[in-house]
Amino acid sequence: MTAGQNSVQSNKSIPDLAPLEAVLFDVDGTLCDSDPIHHLAFREMLLEIGFNNGVPIDEEFFIKNIAGRHNSDIAATLFPDDIPKGEKFLDDKEAMFRRLALENLPPLKGLYKLTKWIEDRGLKRAAVTNAPRLNAELMISILGLKDFFDVVIVGSECARAKPYPDPYLKALELLKVSKDHTFICEDSASGIRAGVAAGVPVVGLTTRNPESVLMEANPTMLVKDYEDPKLWAALEELDKKGKSLKSAA
After folding, report:
1. What is the DSSP letter of 72?
2. Are 21 and 177 in contact (CB under 8 A)?
3. What are phi and psi of 50, to 5 degrees?
4. What is the DSSP letter of 179?
5. Per annotation, catalytic residue among 28, 35, 187, 228
6. Three-class SS of residue 214?
């Protein structure tokens, strides 16, 4: 069964979500531009063990086989004949990532403009990630968003990680919000598929992944970052619709 086979895909635009109840965020590549750090950690550590005959992995390999995927899936891809070795390698790689992230973890452009917009409207919010909890909580803390999120959902703590809908469905359940009044921010095809499979509209971010790859996952819209005029036009329309619904009630 493919991810989302039992789920209804959402064809709603962002303004259709009024009155908005919640915004859900992926972490890596969505809150911060962390993929270059992951790529560096993978490249250096795979070189050390002579992976790919000692040829460093390039960005194309990283995007196709690693970005946005859960570590158990990455381990199976990189070490198909020795999964335990792959899982140990991934644990060591995550420790290296955390050391590097402490030195430099830039927020995505316009992130704090959007988080303020969300706070000003009293919306609920969750971080929903395939990253290990230690990584997710470190990144959220470095970005100063520890008190921003109501809950942090980790894929490995759900029955199935992204690209299955389970982590997003769990977020909706814990926040007690409707998929019809929530949207998701995601930067990977795997994450977009998870959101779409959960029936929630997804704003896709072209942080590092090619637009063509993201569009195949069926996001509601694609934006460059959180300062993209397309995003703010949609949010302005959403605000207007919300106010007219309130005045009509």
Report:
1. H
2. yes
3. 75, 20
4. G
5. 28
6. helix
CA distance 160 to 243: 38
Question: Among 16, 26, 91, 225, which one carries the catalytic annotation?
Answer: 26
* Three-state secondary structure call for residue 22: strand
Identify the helix (H) or strand (E) that includes residue 233: helix 229-248
Q: Tell me the pLDDT band of 237, cut-offs 50, 70 and 90.
A: very high
| 187 noted as active-site residue | no
Known catalytic residue at 150? no
The structure tokens listed for 156 are 């490995």
Burial annotation 117-146 (CB, 10 A radius, 16+ → b, else e): bbeeeebbbbbbbbbbeebbbbbbebbebe
Instruction: Report pTM.
Output: 0.90
Residue 71: closest CA among 38, 104, 116: 38
Alpha helices in 108-224 (DSSP H): 111-120, 133-142, 166-175, 189-197, 211-215
Cβ-Cβ contacts under 8 Å for 248 (sequence gap 6 or more): none
Given pLDDT bands bounded at 50, 70 and 90, which one contains residue 208? Answer: confident
Distance CA 166, CA 229 (A): 31
1, pLDDT greater than 60: no
H-type helices in 33-149, by residue range? 35-48, 59-65, 71-78, 83-103, 111-120, 133-142
∠ CA(103), CA(108), CA(109), 5° rounding? 120
Average pLDDT in the chain: 93
DSSP string, 113-141: HHHHHHHHTT-EEEEEESS-HHHHHHHHH
With tokens 């605000």, the residue in question is 239
Q: CA-to-CA distance for 77 and 17, rounded, in angstroms?
A: 38
